[in-house]
Specification:
InterPro entries: Ntn_hydrolases_N, UCP009120_prtse. GO terms for molecular function: peptidase activity. It is a single chain. By secondary structure, the protein is an alpha+beta fold. The protein has two domains: 210 residues, Glutamine Phosphoribosylpyrophosphate, subunit 1, domain 1; 47 residues, no CATH class. Helices cover 36% and strands 26% of the residues. It has six helices and twelve strands. Strands 10-1-2-11-12 form a five-stranded antiparallel beta sheet, with helices on one face. It has a five-stranded antiparallel beta sheet with strand order 5-6-7-8-9, with helices on one face. The chain has a two-stranded antiparallel sheet with strand order 3-4. A hairpin with a 2-residue loop joins strand 1 and strand 2.
């Protein structure tokens, strides 16, 4: 399994991915799931991948090769982000069919991608590309996308991420979302890659590679844990907690009174 996410806010884009790969209980390794395609001053694309490793590697290799050999379409010929997303979806489905045609073991070759970036000074965009090649755009209400093991890291994104949030704060939120997922699911693991792209910069931006023992990653995790404990302590108290020590009978009587209010 894996976990990747993107955030699209007014000041730019954030991409975050783990590096855990799993080909069975006895075959666990690491592989980068973040791929960048940058033509400084002209266009920037970022691809996050989840699913069958053979498919995702083949897709990335073809994306690079199509540009190098000037085959059309490619990332350089795309006139919009949606056209580039169509291209990624097309080659993904083609490669899945090709690999499935040679398979004799009913292997699942499906792959899912998050794809985003900016062309010229058109607005930055992000897309979630499904194994079938179709895709969705992030929404105004929830300007983030996730693939892989999404459930553990989603609550903080739902509560915090809005379009007007500061870019660096959004990046920290992405790392907390990743940290929560890693703590709850052993199939997601470091190193964690983070890319922060500032709108209209048309460069790769800031890219961080955070190993398990990275001091910044450790500090962020510890501070988040401390914050959660503090938030729990500051939650409103039950009515009986504010009246001192009480017997079970007194507490039951208090609950009955509250029901009838």
């Amino acid at each position: 399994m894996t976990y990747c996410l993107s955030i699209n806010v007014e000041r730019g884009l954030v991409f975050c991915s783990d590096s855990r790969t799993n080909a069975g209980m006895d075959s666990i390794g690491t592989y980068s799931k973040m791929h960048t395609f940058v033509w400084p001053g002209e266009r920037v694309f970022v691809l996050l991948s989840a699913g069958n490793l053979a498919t995702t590697q083949a897709v990335v290799k073809k994306m690079y090769r199509d540009v190098e050999q000037a085959w059309v379409p490619n990332l350089m010929t795309a006139t919009s982000l949606s056209e580039a997303a169509d291209y990624v979806g097309m080659i993904s489905t083609q490669l899945q069919r090709h690999q499935a045609s040679r398979d004799t073991a009913n292997t699942n070759f499906e792959a899912t991608f998050i794809f985003g970036g900016q062309i010229g000074y058109s607005p930055p965009e992000t897309f979630l590309i499904y194994p079938q090649g179709n895709y969705i755009h992030e929404s105004e209400e929830h300007p983030f996308l996730q693939i892989g093991e999404t459930k553990y890291g989603k609550p903080i994104l739902d509560r915090i991420i809005k379009r007007n949030i500061d870019l660096d704060r959004a990046a920290r939120c992405a790392l907390v979302s990743m940290n929560s997922t890693i703590r709850s699911n052993v199939t997601v693991g470091p190193p964690v890659e983070l890319l922060i792209y500032e709108r209209d910069s048309l460069t790769e931006g800031r890219r961080l590679f955070l190993a398990e023992d990275d001091p910044f990653a450790k500090q962020l995790s510890e501070k988040w844990n401390e914050g959660l404990i503090l938030a729990l302590e500051n939650l409103p108290k039950f009515a009986w907690e504010n009246t001192g020590a009480e017997t079970p009978e007194t507490n039951l009587s208090l609950l009955e009174r509250q029901r009838h209010r």
